Protein backbone atom coordinates (compact mmCIF):
# COMPACT_ATOMS: atom_id res chain seq x y z
CA UNK A 1 0.00 0.00 0.00
CA UNK A 2 2.81 2.44 0.91
CA UNK A 3 4.53 1.70 -2.40
CA UNK A 4 1.33 2.46 -4.27
CA UNK A 5 0.97 5.79 -2.43
CA UNK A 6 4.55 6.76 -3.24
CA UNK A 7 4.03 5.92 -6.90
CA UNK A 8 0.85 8.02 -7.00
CA UNK A 9 2.77 11.05 -5.66
CA UNK A 10 5.48 10.85 -8.31
CA UNK A 11 5.22 13.29 -11.21
CA UNK A 12 4.25 11.80 -14.52
CA UNK A 13 7.27 11.26 -16.74
CA UNK A 14 6.46 12.91 -20.09
CA UNK A 15 6.93 11.20 -23.40
CA UNK A 16 10.15 12.40 -24.97
CA UNK A 17 11.89 13.17 -21.67
CA UNK A 18 15.35 11.69 -21.43
CA UNK A 19 15.80 8.52 -19.47
CA UNK A 20 18.41 10.29 -17.35
CA UNK A 21 15.73 12.28 -15.53
CA UNK A 22 13.69 9.28 -14.44
CA UNK A 23 15.99 8.58 -11.53
CA UNK A 24 14.93 11.87 -9.96
CA UNK A 25 11.18 11.31 -10.31
CA UNK A 26 10.68 11.15 -6.53
CA UNK A 27 12.32 14.57 -6.04
CA UNK A 28 10.07 16.98 -7.99
CA UNK A 29 12.36 20.02 -7.92
CA UNK A 30 15.43 18.07 -9.05
CA UNK A 31 13.38 16.22 -11.64
CA UNK A 32 11.99 19.51 -12.94
CA UNK A 33 15.47 21.00 -13.22
CA UNK A 34 16.63 17.91 -15.09
CA UNK A 35 13.75 18.12 -17.56
CA UNK A 36 14.37 21.85 -18.07
CA UNK A 37 18.07 21.32 -18.68
CA UNK A 38 17.30 18.85 -21.47
CA UNK A 39 14.23 20.64 -22.84
CA UNK A 40 15.62 20.96 -26.34
CA UNK A 41 15.16 17.22 -26.79
CA UNK A 42 11.52 17.13 -25.71
CA UNK A 43 9.06 16.37 -28.48
CA UNK A 44 6.57 19.02 -27.32
CA UNK A 45 6.78 22.06 -25.03
CA UNK A 46 3.65 20.79 -23.28
CA UNK A 47 5.87 18.19 -21.60
CA UNK A 48 7.47 21.06 -19.68
CA UNK A 49 4.43 21.00 -17.38
CA UNK A 50 6.21 18.17 -15.56
CA UNK A 51 9.10 20.52 -14.75
CA UNK A 52 7.07 22.21 -12.02
CA UNK A 53 8.82 25.36 -10.81
CA UNK A 54 11.21 25.07 -13.75
CA UNK A 55 8.46 25.07 -16.38
CA UNK A 56 9.12 28.57 -17.75
CA UNK A 57 12.83 27.85 -18.09
CA UNK A 58 12.02 24.54 -19.73
CA UNK A 59 9.72 26.24 -22.24
CA UNK A 60 12.29 28.95 -22.98
CA UNK A 61 14.96 26.34 -23.71
CA UNK A 62 12.57 24.33 -25.87
CA UNK A 63 11.81 27.47 -27.88
CA UNK A 64 15.45 28.53 -28.09
CA UNK A 65 16.36 25.21 -29.68
CA UNK A 66 13.82 25.90 -32.44
CA UNK A 67 14.35 29.58 -33.24
CA UNK A 68 16.21 28.96 -36.48
CA UNK A 69 14.06 28.88 -39.63
CA UNK A 70 15.06 25.32 -40.43
CA UNK A 71 13.41 24.04 -37.28
CA UNK A 72 10.04 23.73 -39.01
CA UNK A 73 8.26 25.37 -36.07
CA UNK A 74 6.21 28.47 -36.87
CA UNK A 75 6.70 31.76 -35.07
CA UNK A 76 3.17 31.57 -33.66
CA UNK A 77 3.82 28.08 -32.31
CA UNK A 78 6.99 29.30 -30.60
CA UNK A 79 5.20 32.28 -29.07
CA UNK A 80 2.44 30.00 -27.81
CA UNK A 81 4.99 27.58 -26.36
CA UNK A 82 6.71 30.31 -24.33
CA UNK A 83 5.95 30.39 -20.64
CA UNK A 84 6.66 34.06 -19.98
CA UNK A 85 6.91 37.47 -21.65
CA UNK A 86 10.72 37.45 -21.77
CA UNK A 87 10.67 34.32 -23.91
CA UNK A 88 8.11 35.89 -26.24
CA UNK A 89 10.22 39.05 -26.58
CA UNK A 90 13.19 36.90 -27.60
CA UNK A 91 11.07 35.21 -30.28
CA UNK A 92 9.68 38.53 -31.55
CA UNK A 93 13.18 40.01 -31.79
CA UNK A 94 14.75 36.96 -33.41
CA UNK A 95 11.94 36.44 -35.90
CA UNK A 96 11.15 40.12 -36.38
CA UNK A 97 8.93 41.24 -39.24
CA UNK A 98 10.58 43.71 -41.61
CA UNK A 99 7.40 45.83 -41.86
CA UNK A 100 7.45 48.09 -38.79
CA UNK A 101 3.69 48.30 -38.26
CA UNK A 102 3.27 44.54 -38.62
CA UNK A 103 5.90 44.08 -35.92
CA UNK A 104 4.17 46.65 -33.69
CA UNK A 105 0.94 44.66 -33.97
CA UNK A 106 2.80 41.50 -33.00
CA UNK A 107 4.34 43.32 -30.04
CA UNK A 108 0.88 44.29 -28.88
CA UNK A 109 -0.50 40.81 -29.33
CA UNK A 110 2.32 38.88 -27.67
CA UNK A 111 4.87 40.93 -25.72
CA UNK A 112 2.67 41.85 -22.73
CA UNK A 113 4.72 43.93 -20.24
CA UNK A 114 7.64 43.87 -22.68
CA UNK A 115 5.61 45.64 -25.38
CA UNK A 116 7.48 48.98 -24.97
CA UNK A 117 10.82 47.18 -25.38
CA UNK A 118 9.49 45.24 -28.36
CA UNK A 119 8.39 48.46 -30.08
CA UNK A 120 11.68 50.16 -29.21
CA UNK A 121 13.67 47.34 -30.79
CA UNK A 122 11.44 47.41 -33.88
CA UNK A 123 11.88 51.16 -34.32
CA UNK A 124 15.65 50.91 -33.89
CA UNK A 125 15.86 48.23 -36.58
CA UNK A 126 13.66 50.40 -38.82
CA UNK A 127 15.84 53.47 -38.21
CA UNK A 128 18.95 51.47 -39.10
CA UNK A 129 17.58 51.20 -42.66
CA UNK A 130 17.60 55.04 -42.88
CA UNK A 131 13.94 55.57 -43.83
CA UNK A 132 12.85 58.65 -45.76
CA UNK A 133 10.57 61.42 -44.48
CA UNK A 134 7.79 59.91 -46.60
CA UNK A 135 8.31 56.52 -44.96
CA UNK A 136 8.17 58.17 -41.54
CA UNK A 137 4.95 59.98 -42.45
CA UNK A 138 3.33 56.69 -43.45
CA UNK A 139 4.18 55.30 -40.02
CA UNK A 140 3.17 58.33 -37.95
CA UNK A 141 -0.34 58.02 -39.38
CA UNK A 142 -0.75 54.84 -37.31
CA UNK A 143 -3.62 55.00 -34.81
CA UNK A 144 -3.70 51.33 -33.88
CA UNK A 145 -2.33 49.34 -30.97
CA UNK A 146 0.65 50.82 -29.09
CA UNK A 147 0.43 54.10 -31.02
CA UNK A 148 1.66 55.93 -27.91
CA UNK A 149 4.81 53.82 -27.57
CA UNK A 150 5.41 53.91 -31.30
CA UNK A 151 5.24 57.72 -31.24
CA UNK A 152 7.53 57.86 -28.22
CA UNK A 153 10.25 55.89 -30.01
CA UNK A 154 9.74 57.50 -33.42
CA UNK A 155 10.81 60.81 -31.84
CA UNK A 156 14.37 59.56 -32.20
CA UNK A 157 13.98 59.43 -35.98
CA UNK A 158 12.76 63.03 -35.94
CA UNK A 159 15.34 64.47 -33.53
CA UNK A 160 18.33 62.14 -33.70
CA UNK A 161 18.17 61.28 -37.41
CA UNK A 162 16.55 64.58 -38.46
CA UNK A 163 13.99 62.82 -40.63
CA UNK A 164 10.48 64.23 -41.03
CA UNK A 165 8.22 65.39 -38.20
CA UNK A 166 5.97 63.96 -35.49
CA UNK A 167 2.83 64.97 -37.37
CA UNK A 168 0.40 62.07 -37.53
CA UNK A 169 -2.47 60.46 -35.63
CA UNK A 170 -3.40 62.33 -32.42
CA UNK A 171 -2.16 59.76 -29.89
CA UNK A 172 1.05 59.05 -31.76
CA UNK A 173 1.80 62.72 -32.43
CA UNK A 174 1.36 63.72 -28.78
CA UNK A 175 3.68 60.94 -27.60
CA UNK A 176 6.23 61.75 -30.29
CA UNK A 177 6.26 65.46 -29.52
CA UNK A 178 6.70 64.84 -25.77
CA UNK A 179 9.61 62.51 -26.40
CA UNK A 180 11.11 64.86 -28.99
CA UNK A 181 11.03 67.74 -26.47
CA UNK A 182 12.83 65.57 -23.91
CA UNK A 183 15.48 64.64 -26.47
CA UNK A 184 16.05 68.26 -27.48
CA UNK A 185 16.28 69.32 -23.82
CA UNK A 186 18.85 66.64 -23.09
CA UNK A 187 16.48 64.86 -20.69
CA UNK A 188 16.85 61.66 -22.69
CA UNK A 189 19.43 60.40 -25.14
CA UNK A 190 19.37 58.88 -28.61
CA UNK A 191 19.78 55.14 -29.05
CA UNK A 192 22.17 53.90 -31.69
CA UNK A 193 20.00 51.85 -34.09
CA UNK A 194 22.96 49.63 -34.95
CA UNK A 195 22.71 48.20 -31.42
CA UNK A 196 19.15 46.97 -31.87
CA UNK A 197 18.55 43.20 -31.54
CA UNK A 198 18.92 41.75 -35.01
CA UNK A 199 16.43 39.29 -36.50
CA UNK A 200 17.42 35.99 -38.03
CA UNK A 201 18.48 35.75 -41.64
CA UNK A 202 15.39 34.55 -43.44
CA UNK A 203 15.75 32.20 -46.40
Short descriptors:
203 residues; mainly alpha; 52% helix; elongated; disordered N terminus
Contiguous low-pLDDT stretches (5 residues minimum) are 1-13
Q: Please trace the helix and strand order, writing H or E for each element.
A: HHHHHHHHHH
Tell me how many strands there are: 0
* Tally of helical segments: 10
Rg, alpha carbons: 22 Å
Helix content: 40-55%
- State the end-to-end distance: 59 Å
What is the mean pLDDT?
Answer: 88
Instruction: Label the structural class.
Output: mainly alpha
Largest sheet: none
Strand % is under 5%
Q: Assembly type of the shown chains?
A: single chain
Description:
- With 203 residues, the chain is mainly alpha-helical.
- It has a domain at 96-203.
- 52% of the residues lie in helices and 0% in strands.
- The chain has helices spanning 2-9, 28-37, 55-64, 75-81, 85-94, 100-110, 115-128, 133-140, 147-159, 170-184.
Amino acid sequence: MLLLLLQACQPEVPAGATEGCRGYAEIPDVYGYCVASLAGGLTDAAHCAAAGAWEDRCRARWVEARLQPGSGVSTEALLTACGDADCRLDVLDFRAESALLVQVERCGAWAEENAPHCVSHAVQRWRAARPSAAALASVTAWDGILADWLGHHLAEAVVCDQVGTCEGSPVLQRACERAASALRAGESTCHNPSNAPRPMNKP
